[in-house]
Amino acid sequence: MANPFVHFNLHTSDVPKARGFYKELFAWKFTSLPTPKGVFTLIDVGAGTGGGMMQNPAPEAPSHWLAAVGVDDIEATVKRVKELGGTIVEPITKLGFIGSMCVIQDPTGAHLALFERKRGLF
CA 107, 9, 76 angle in degrees (round to 5)? Predict the structure, then answer.
């Protein structure tokens, strides 16, 4: 697959409650990282695609999972999203030494994150 799902984020109204639930349910491990926008919690699922969780950035929206697809060139992909009738919900954001991400909305209203890994990283 040319553009696989590479990360899943939980946007939740209650991070501690969600951590406790998924720790008990799946034995996932968590690492909290401070960021300029608050704490981001990495999720280590063992084998497979991991993710993270954070306080829901849209408090009016219900808690939800957001999938991220890996892309080689996020700028070119964003341009293509617009050409195909999609919209940009969250603009491209640099994620320190990790890479860049943004959130798009397809023409049907579904949201998806795009993630470009920094060259040479893992």
Answer: 50
Does 57 share its domain with 75? no
Domain that holds residue 111: 71-122
**CA max distance for the chain:** 44
107 Cβ contact partners less than 8 Å away, ≥ 6 residues apart? 84, 85, 86
Q: pTM here?
A: 0.84
CA torsion 60→16→48→105, rounded to 10°? Answer: 10
What pLDDT, in 10s, does the model give residues 67-122? 999 999 999 999 999 999 999 999 998 887 788 999 999 999 999 999 998 765 54
